[in-house]
Amino acid sequence: MLRKITHGFSYLLVGAVLLSSQNVLAWGQNGHRIVGKIAENHITDATKAELKELLEGQSLAQIATWADEMRSDPSPFWQKKSSRWHYINAPSNSTTFTHNHDENLNKDNVSNILEGMYFAIDTLKNKNSSVDAKRFSLRFLVHLVGDSHQPFHAGRAEDRGGNRVNVTFFGQPTNLHSLWDTKLIENENLSFTEFAKFIDTNNAEIIAEYLASSPEQWVTESHNLADKLYKLNNDEIGFSYIYENTPIIKTRLQQAGIRLAGLLNTLFDSSAKPLAKALKMSANTNK
Fold first, then answer.
1. Residue pair 162/180 in contact by the 8 Å Cβ criterion
2. How many CB atoms lie within 10 A of CB 277?
3. Strand (E) or helix (H) holding 142
4. Which domains are delineated in the chain?
5. Which InterPro entries would you find in this protein's record (predicted)?
6. Distance (Å, rounded) from C-alpha 3 to C-alpha 193?
7. Does the N terminus or the C terminus of the chain have fewer Cβ atoms within 10 A?
8. Global confidence as pTM
9. What pLDDT does residue 158 have?
10. With a cut of 50, which residues of the chain have pLDDT below it?
11. Closest Cα to residue 259, out of 6, 23, 60?
């Protein structure tokens, strides 16, 4: 169930397909950093200690954009295979996403965002994984949890998740995917730290609702949102569209940050229990 977040207050409350490496940048840099920052507010001290070696002095917000930044790397993985990690296609005549565990799954044969998230999770859980493998998986996982909450990363194949749907944003030509990646977030004129602070929450009811979910549900939520947004799309984007849809973006970013923290605590803190007990309440928020 989706519950809106209005400007400044929180209330109760997966992508693009066949994309080139240049245009599958879910949420843009600020969006991913917002997700990472919210997660930082809710990971436990035990999780922070376990992550220290893998982060190499960086924060979750800093590594959140790594999987996009690496697309400039000329190696075959980044140029030919990594883009598949960032999105998923809905099965024909279905909106149900499932993941079947494949023991032969490796980073080169990951085919969608669900497989990417579960590959990263399995690598981080495996005591025999190397530090480098865990570092790679952590960086990708932080990014993909964000991607899974961007509606057009569970969009339509024929328009490449909204990349081929042209719109005008206050007179400037753009496309539907870019509008949701970046422009609606930047329109708030906030830094990622300000944005994260304004939408973060300690509301136990909201947190319990968010954490009672799985990666399959995250991408299903995004797919259902994308389906509605396609139907409501207007060529000319203005104030009314911003008013109606910015709360949705805030909700998705909030959900992604909370769920990322819960996932990391479950992976790295043996005392953290799934769902509502997997989060540390941030002292910076009281909503």
1. yes
2. 14
3. helix 131-147
4. 28-88+103-278 (1.10.575.10)
5. PLipase_C/P1_nuclease_dom_sf (IPR008947), S1/P1nuclease (IPR003154)
6. 22
7. N
8. 0.86
9. 84
10. 1-24, 284, 286
11. 60
